Records
---
Amino acid sequence: MIDLPFLSDICRTTPSKIVLLVADGLGGAPHPDTGKSELETANLPNLDALAGESSCGLTTPVMTGITPGSGPGHMALFGYDPIKYLMGRGVLEALGIDVELGPGDVSSRGNFCTLDGDGLLVDRRAGRIPTAESAPLVELLDQIEVPGVSLSVYPVQDYRFVLVIRGEGLDDGVSETDPQVVGEAPLVPHALNESSRKAAEVVKAFAAAAQEVLGGRDRANMVLLRGFSKLPHLPDFGESYSLNPGAVAAYPMYRGLAKLVGMNVIPTGRSFDDELDTLEKNFDKHDFFFLHYKPADAAGEDGDFEAKVKCLEELDERIPRLRGLGPDVLVVAGDHATPAIMAGHSWHPVPVMINSDLTKGDGSPAFHERSCSTGSLGRLPATELMLLAMAHAGKLVKYGP
């Protein structure tokens, strides 16, 4: 864990390289018709072969029974206690698209959504409208004015945007407007503490103005806001582990997360193949890489079991290319489970495997929840994964006399 006493005393710099591949929403749950999860259903010859040469187990992202967001899930994988270092998603989205945030700025993640004639949600993501459709809508929102503050709205990707509020006397204790389910109206924001009253009133005014601006549309006719946050102060990832870390992520939120903990975010394209191109071109420049794969999570959130299976199979096809780089330690993990049968994140434990020269003969027959549950790693907190990766890479020395 990042807060381990004397962590810097036991970490050492070596030439060995670690690649942490995070398959977003990796874990799943059995389909009621087959009794098999997405990982069990998918044809994964390369991941299964890798599991046979790796130490396998299950991670708990936060705590037993707790459903994590992507932010806490990733923070845990990086070794940060996600309860101590909880942060809103707004600041991560903003940093991911290179928005400069001041210490008093409050940022929020926004979704375009679709309401019916009664003002009830029918689609929280407005059909995942493409950026070409959402960008002009962002420009309309960016013209909204609220007295006493400065508002800026930035496009992120597809149906998502960032709202940044700048002014005096702002705090980020504002409730979200997303009820997280369809069939209900967007929630009215309120202050969660006394110091956030001004920010809450600003958000309420912005949401009302957004409804006026977008209300005449068939879809993307309203917005949902959540993840209100200010810049946090975090221990530096590279300094804590004596690493020179690089991050390769196509999606802005994960670039923002990597930037927040001090990783060097390497520009890349929008596909996982682009990410692999970037990794190959920069492999000699860093001794640790965070590599992100998004599609499986999106399919799971859409409740599309077959699509998630396909996304996992597409990831599997690219594993030989990743292994071809010859990382000394390759970790395949997930930030949380996104079972398609639940159409959202869940509390289920997540499969993980660590591959190094020290794991040969320690493997599991396949890479899925059932097989990994009997693996040599057992079930461990996700916060402990970085220390295991460091140990396998020979980057930790003896603790104590």
---
Amino acid sequence: MESNFFSIKPEILSPAGDMERLITAVNFGADAVYLAGRDFGMRTSSSNFTQNELIKAVSFAHKNNVKVYLTCNTLPTNEEVDKLPEFIEYAKSAEVDAIIVADIGVLQIVKKYAPGVDIHISTQAGVVNYLNAQALYDLGAKRVILARELTLDDIATIRAKTDKNLELEVFVHGSMCVSFSGRCLISSYLTGRDANRGDCAQPCRWKYSLVEENRKDQLFPIVEENGGTYLFNSRDLCMIEHIPEIIKAGATSLKIEGRAKSAYYAAVTTNAYKNALDLFMNKKPFEPWIRQELEKISHREYSTGFFLGNEPGQVHSNGGYIREYDVVAVCDAYRDGIMEVSQRNKFFKGDILEILNPKNKPFDLKVEKILDEWGNELESAPHAMQKLFIPVESAIIPGAYLRKRRC
């Protein structure tokens, strides 16, 4: 089934675990970012934002015509409910554009204490049909973030059978959870860390063996190959080559997972999806370099998740990441043919580096000369965060990343 909403350009929604990642996402083309305060968010591993930091974040984003969505999508306990009004009031005072909730009670609190602020329903709510989506819209939700288990046909049906003003958001890239819509108890059982309160230890990524009831001291590996079996380990989602189908199904927001991931991850994924979307909206063909970009971040094996209905989301070979590139420096300034950078990993004079400018296709640079802050020429850059100067003919935008392929 195909929606008639395909002419509407959806937003690129990027993760922002802290101020550095927010600035990076904005600079590399995000239309909106999602982030958390210090309470009620689903990522305790991120730095997240204090009240003052949230105000600064919203101000910076709005100056760049980027929206900010605040997560309040944990399921609050009875003891926490009394803290909600103050949290919601400060979110409104910070002028966030929307608050993301997973609980109907929290939805009602937002309506009472933050009138005029949009309400988005979290994927944690597990919305899989048009009846639920419409009911949430009738309760006051502006947007529903659909469950990740849906196919493109499912999304198109929801779009066709709900109010045209209801926005539909879908995840298009990033880590996938083995449990339905992220509702998992494995972490709580094994480590005492509650995944539904943003504190998942990710035991689904671990290697498992069987234990027979009468031989508890003897492990039986579950293997088909020497690497063992990772029974619960989901592949990462990547829909970069299927943006036309997602738009035609009726999605109004394309969401990138990863608030706990690096600023470089936010830069590459935002840049890739922004360029892919712009090409499609301008009726231009997809360019292969965009797909190649997503191989240059740390990731697990990719899949299309449940969207196409024909590809398993599990990988049984290993629980680790694929890492083929290292960030070696970040551009701080560019003046008169000289790029000032902060070093991140060691690189050498003579190296071929890739430069990723915000909102642009990357290009190669051979490092002909490295200078320190006193003008001394160096053979290598071994010191983390050292200020260095590199002559370069092309203009480099501050915030650009310099990366090197691993040997």
